Design the sequence.
């Protein structure tokens, strides 16, 4: 397992990572989520000893990364898919890694096959697409057959078939009892992949819980009601002791009540309804609500912060981002 205790990293005045304490366990996929600039990559770099913490510790199976005898056999990581020698072929890139880490050359062919790059194994990597680079990076991570795998934004640049493939690959690795830690800023993708979530915002821990607990604790379900006689409907609901919140387009939003019960109540008072619809806030909305105060970059065309209850545009991250205040 991976254990972080009080992990902190400052870059000048920027607190990229701020006292992170959590444990990543084997046998499941742990999703590492946060808005752009939340500190995910910095945390992963420190886990792999590529960056020194300002304070705090990371332990991999009880040891510091530097103390691992065969690091590539203990931890495999995909951090930056472009971090390879462009003049080398995919095969030679992996062979160099294998030879410098005491891994049998035969393993190179195996991992090339696993990631579907056998037919381009002899091609120089500088001609590779982003998706092919991601696959090669994943092959490198798998090379030492490690018990712990870390992937930083692994679906970047992959087509739908590739995304499906990596999702199943990660599930298979977790099912074999390995520790799988995967970062993303795409909640919708995480919802399909992860069993457990670690959510950070501005370097701080915001959630450390199972996916199912995260959904039930952070996504709001309510009933949306619209009526040409909204005033009277509100009065009737209030009269029945039901709390009502104003929604978009003059709708009323009722939390904690059954839609059928609300419909019957309206019918008893002969109030016409144009809409009576149960709503479940998506996980993406729940995530945006949770991290609303910690988002460092906002879409230029949408100056509104995604405050609680506000309808943030789904998938807005990755749109036209500008640093807050610009
Ligand atoms: N080498 C560095 N020097 C100075 N500041 C840095 C450096 N690396 C990261 N930062 C800052 O630290 C913060 C966290 O960055 P980091 O890349 O870890 O976030 P992230 O969650 O991985 O973001 P993204 O999803 O956009 O990749 C940001 O404010 C970033 O600007």
Sequence:
């Amino acid at each position: 397992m991976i254990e972080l205790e009080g992990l902190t990293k400052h870059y000048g005045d920027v607190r990229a990572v701020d006292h992170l304490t959590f444990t990543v366990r084997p046998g499941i996929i742990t999703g590492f989520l946060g808005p752009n600039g939340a500190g995910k990559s910095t945390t992963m770099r420190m886990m792999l000893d590529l960056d020194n913490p300002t304070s705090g510790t990371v332990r991999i199976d009880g040891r510091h990364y530097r103390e691992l005898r065969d690091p590539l056999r203990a931890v495999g990581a995909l951090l930056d898919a472009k971090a390879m020698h462009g003049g080398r072929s995919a095969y030679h890139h992996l062979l160099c890694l294998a030879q410098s880490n005491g891994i049998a050359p035969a393993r190179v062919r195996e991992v090339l096959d696993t990631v579907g790059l056998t037919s381009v194994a002899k091609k120089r990597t500088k001609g590779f697409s982003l998706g092919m680079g991601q696959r090669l990076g994943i092959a490198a991570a798998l090379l030492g057959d490690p018990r712990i795998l870390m992937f930083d934004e692994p679906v970047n640049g992959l087509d739908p078939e590739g995304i499906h493939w990596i999702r199943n690959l990660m599930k298979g690795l977790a099912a074999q009892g390995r520790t799988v830690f995967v970062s993303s800023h795409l909640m919708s993708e995480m919802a399909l992949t992860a069993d457990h979530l670690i959510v950070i915002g501005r370097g701080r821990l915001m959630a450390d819980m199972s996916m199912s607990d995260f959904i039930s604790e952070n996504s709001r379900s309510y009933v949306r009601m619209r009526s040409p006689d909204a005033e009277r409907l509100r009065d009737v609901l209030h009269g029945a002791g039901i709390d009502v919140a104003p929604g978009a387009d003059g709708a009323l939003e009722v939390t904690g009540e059954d839609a059928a019960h609300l419909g019957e109540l309206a019918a008893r008072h002969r109030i016409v309804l144009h809409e009576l619809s149960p709503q479940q806030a998506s996980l993406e909305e729940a995530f945006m609500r949770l991290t609303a105060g910690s988002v460092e970059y906002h879409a230029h065309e949408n100056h509104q912060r995604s405050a609680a209850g506000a309808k943030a545009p789904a998938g807005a991250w990755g749109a036209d981002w500008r640093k807050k205040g610009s």
The pocket of adenosine-5'-triphosphate is lined by residues 11, 14, 16, 34, 36-42, 185 (CB under 6 Å). The chain has two domains: 2-215, 221-280. Residues 300-326 have pLDDT under 50 and may be disordered.
